[in-house]
Structure formats: C-alpha cells, structure tokens
Amino acid sequence: MTAATTRAPGQYRLRVQEFISFREQGILVVRGLVPPEDVEELRAHTEDVIHGRLELPGVAPAPVGAAGRGHSTILDASRLGEVERRYVRIHMLHRLLAIHERFLLHPRILDVLEALIGPDLMAMQTMLFLKPPGADGQGWHQDSYYIPTLPDSLCGAWLAIDRADEANGCMHFAVGSQHEPIYPDAQNRARHYPAGAPVDLVDIAHASATDETQNGLVPVARGYADREVRVEAEPGDVVFFGGHILHRSHANTTVDRFRRAFVGHYANARSYTEWGGGNAQHILARGRTHLPFAQPRFGTPCAANRPQAVPEAPAETMMADGDGMATAPTNPSRLRPEAHDHADRSSNY
Length: 349
Prior knowledge:
By secondary structure, the protein is of the alpha+beta class. It has helices spanning about 15-25, 35-50, 75-85, 100-105, 105-115, 145, 190, 220; strands at about 25-30, 90, 120-130, 140, 155-160, 170-175, 230, 240, 245-250, 260-270, 285, 315-320, 325-330.
C-alpha cells in the first residue's frame, strides 16, 4: 500500500470450515493474507522506528545508532536495551501516522472480520509490537478485559511482520477458553457486567503478569493445559482471535531476532463502548451503525467516508403467519441513525 493508493489484491472469501474453526477454537490463522509487498512496507517502517530515523509523536526519539543501517535489525546490547525500554509495544499510532491507519483498515483483514463478527465493523485500536531479543513475554490475559464492548464482539487481528516461533516468543492460546466469561478485577466488575455477573464469578488480579504466582488467570488457564496451542506464523499471516480466549506469549530468547507484529482490535459497529473515548472515537470500517463513529484521520477508504446507501424500500422481517412464515415491513423510522442516538447515554459501563 502507498499513501496515494490502496492496493486490493482481491477480496478474501472465508470458507465454511474457517468460520467453524473460529467458533470451535476461538482462533483462526489465515496464512499469507497480507501480500508480501505490504508486509515489507510495514517492516521498513519498523526499521525506521528501531533505528531512530522516525520521530513518533508523543514519544521521545531514540538516538540514531551507527549499527543497523539500511534494513538490518542487528543492534549492540545497549541499543537493544533502549529499544526494549521505549518501543516493545506502541499503542494507537493510527491516530498519528497514516501507515498505521491504512493497516488497521487493510481490506483483506477487514474481509475476514466482516465474515467473523460483521457485517458492520468498528476499528478501535492498534498496537505495534517490536519485541527485540531478550524482551519479556506477556502472561495469560483476555483482551475484552481491557476493551469492553456491549454486546461483547471484540476480535483481534495479529499480523506477523517477522517469523514468529517459540524461540522469539510467538503467541499461545488456550483453545476452548473462548467460552469462558471475562474475569474482572473488583474495580471493573460493573463495567463488564452492568446487569450483574454470574453468581460464582471470582474477581482476579494481575492479568497479563508473567509471574504465574501473581496472575489470577493462571488457575483458569490450567483447566485448558492439554489444549494450549502454540501459533507459529510467517510474515503476512494473520491470527484472528476473540476477546474472551486466554492467550499469552513467552520471552524472546534469541540474540539476533525481533518478533515484530501489527495488531488491530475491532468490534461489531453496533456494539456500544466507552473504551478509548467511546464509539465516536472509533472508525466505521465496514457496513453501517446507529451509533456515532469517527472518520479516518488520514482519509483511508472505508465505510466511514463513503456515502451510506439509503434503502429504497422498507426492509422486511420474518413474522409468524399460521403454520408458515410471512414477511412484514420494518418501520422505516427504525432505520434512521437519529432514532438510536446514544450520544447522551449516561449509563456507566
């Protein structure tokens, strides 16, 4: 992709078995989803970040080092420490840099998400992981714990920039745990369960901690010990995973390999959220919504900046008619966004 054009190598059409696998396992790996030339653009961008050639708004610039000219990621020990301290994980750069917005709204990634959680999609978050040699992993956690949506429809899309394997800290998932509820801490129980949590749901603490004596999700994860899967990925592979599935990664134990990845988080555009400033701060990527939404700041084509088609006739719904089914028109007023305006909602989620 370039700033001037959006290259679409072809729509990705999900297969039935892929849809089933996502529901059964909580994850779906689509190999080679993002074309090599797009991955190379993103990899070159990370090189500029690593070697201090790019100033990130709001982040103190790293010193430009003599090592690692061109596309090399070979750095001396002091430089690696600096990269790890500053840049292991960088959030929300799609609001500051056009390249991050374009990858958040990459058409082929949205194609898969549209089938999994759509058709209406809200693009919410980006994270750039650099994970240099020696960097720590992340302990068991659930993404919907951090990014609540109601109804809960969160889905992550993890794009490999480098090869990811056990040595440099690839992702691990507890297959089956996608059916678990979100385990909140005591302070955020109401945010996840405004109508009340399951009566036997326990609060946890220190989600994401690598110290298993501290991470409150470890007892839950042990119930899936025989179903923990390691997901190795090649550049261009994308791992899709729901917001409830428990996942983690181990440390990068290599001495010369980064484990770079670009991660986007999405939800159905008809889910309500107060995370990150609320729905009005998140981009309508595909489809339609009755809720407020944001425009892409750098003009990347998506549903938000395209004219919304107006139905020429009332939509139809299925209504019982004796022993069979008949169609009945929907009230046209229900199709107007202003009829579902949540701008003044005062409920605390």
